[in-house]
Each structure stands twice: as structure tokens, then as C-alpha cells.
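**Protein of interest**
===
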Amino acid sequence: QLRLVESGGGLVQFGGSLRLSCTASGFPLRSYAIGWFRQAPGKEREGVSCISSSGQQTKYRDSVKGRFTISRDDQKNTVYLQMNSLKPEDTGVYSCAAKGFICDPNDDPKGYDRWGQGTQVTVSS
């Protein structure tokens, strides 16, 4: 069974940190770009970050630049999202998604064909 599973979400105070993990099972992650998306209540899903299959391309939305870091460990079949200096506006369900090789240039969720179930991140003020 081909799956992506997110973990590492939780409740954290303003300024705190979390590390999210996206682990693949049933297929090797090394040929896939992985994007992280989030969705807050009443809002559309938005792209947060992405890393290409080679790891040479990384992308971040402007609001998280300098605070979030995406990385990958293909031996563990896992992509990480280190989130520091968290703010209440970072609250949402974070999901990872896979597509072949390179990140979607428009951070369009429709460009990704495999999704995890999501993990909740809540940042209190």
C-alpha cells in the first residue's frame, strides 16, 4: 500500500518549535518532490514548503522564510519540516504530498498526486 504519513504535530506556545515528519511506505521517496501544505479553518489550503527529489531545490512561502527548514533523509524515506519561532497564524492541519522530481512551480495542490492524512499544529498566543 502506497502511503504518506505525517507526524510531529501538536500544541505549542508562541515562539516555540515543532518538527514535522512525512514518511513514505510502499514506495521509495527518492524520486519524488515533497510539498508541505497547511489549511486553517475556513481558509484554503496553501503551500508552505517544498523540496525536490534531489534536495537541491527548496521553496518556502514568504511568511515562513527564515523560520521553517525543509530537509529529507531518503534512507529513512522521510522528509522533515523544522518549524521555529511559531506564530498563531501558523496554526492549521499540515499535510505532505508527493509529485515526481520537482516542486510545483505554482505551489498548486493539484500538482501533487499522493497525500498524507495530515497532522494538526496549534500555536497558542
